[in-house]
Structure formats: C-alpha cells, structure tokens
User: Fold this.
Amino acid sequence: MIGRLNHVAIVVPDLDAAVRTYRDGLGAAVSPPEDLPEHGVTVVFVTLPNSKVELVAPLGETSPVASFLDRNPAGGMHHICFEVADLGAARDRLVAEGMRVLGSGEPKLGAHGLPVLFLHPKDLHGTLVELEEVAR
Amino acid sequence: MIGRLNHVAIVVPDLDAAVRTYRDGLGAAVSPPEDLPEHGVTVVFVTLPNSKVELVAPLGETSPVASFLDRNPAGGMHHICFEVADLGAARDRLVAEGMRVLGSGEPKLGAHGLPVLFLHPKDLHGTLVELEEVAR
Assistant:
C-alpha cells in the first residue's frame, strides 16, 4: 500500500543554523525558507536525488512543533512521510486494523497542498507516520 | 556532497510486531529478519520504491541500541543515512568544518558491508546522521 518515502521531517530550534549545516557542511541543495502560518511552521526542503528532508522550525506562539522542541531542545527527527495513492482507502484499511488517526480522522491539506493524515505513534512503534496522497 | 537518502533506521522493542505493522498494516515489502551479531542488532528492511526503512531491534546483552530503548521504550526514529561517493573525503571536509565523527573517526563496515561513519547529533541539530560510501 505505501509507496515512496516522501520525506523525513527534522525539527530544529535554529533554521538558519540548520540550513548552513545541510547546505555548506553536507553540500546539499536547500530551498529558501517558506513560512506556513496555517501550519505554524517555517520549512526548508533539502532536496536529495531520491527523496527529501524537511527542516522544520516553529512559527508563531502556538506551533504544533513547540512541544517537540520542549522535549528535545536540540531538535531531532519528528516524523516520516510515506506516499499513498488513495488516502481515504488507506485510512479505512488502517482504522479497520485498529490504528488510530490523529485529529478528526479526516485528511487535511498538508505542507505541500496535498491531502495528508498522521497515524498515532503508539500504533507505529514510537514513530509518527504521515501518509500523503500523491497522484502518479 | 551527500547523495541519496539510503535509509531511515527505526529502533523497535518488538521486531515481529513491527514487521506485522509494516507488512500487514502498511502493506510494504519486508525482508526476513537478519541477525548482525557484530553490530549487536537484528534488522528487517522495509523496501520502498525509492529508499528503505530499517527496522532495528537489539541483539545480545551489549547492543548499541539498548540505551536508545531505555530512553524510548516504545521505540522511535534512530538515525538517517545519506550516501556519499567518497567517505574519506566527506569525513575530512566535515571535520575541517568542526563536525565530530563518532568513535575512532575512521570508517567502519556498516550493516550493508559498506564503509560508514556516524556524525555527532550535537553537530547535526539533534539528529544522528550516518554516511555510507556507495559506489554508483
């Protein structure tokens, strides 16, 4: 069911410093920062030949990643995103197997403008998993 | 400098349960478990079209992932691995920029039988980064 590994999201306390590390240190292609106020984050995409890393920093007072940084002040890996062809069908299958979808259970538009949902880390062995519907 | 995202390693307390989740729940192709006593882990590869996830469980009394499970009993994302063409050159460049290589600083043979090294998470914004030399 799951397809490509779309991205790994890494939350960082200092986005400029992280950009320097990935661009100047690791020599990767890095996008300009993009504020996503509706998601409460600023993101930078590290483009790799087969996938990408998303560097994520909090934006605003109520950022959904603020509590992650409270627990992990240095930053760290936040979630992994897999592509699916049909998010509704994927959701129904996973819920039928007892997995929990975060929030309302309905897909929302994610940072790429595509439908996404998040599965509960307790049902995925401690890892927060995002599913994104990508037409291919 | 860095190339493909080779894998994301996820440490889990119960490898059989994680295999069921990824194979039967998420519908991914999953390899048979492989014991790597010289690394103190048992691994399962989740093969995705563009990359892979490595599910890792401790093997033996002195597993290097045991302390991670002590801190994260449910499991969680452990490290991310990027490919490089020349590991020695990559190491020299990163050390010159002030990054720290874990252990002796010299490449070792990793779980795939290829030379690897790990960069200190404090120099990578809280994320443990593995570099693997892959000839392409």
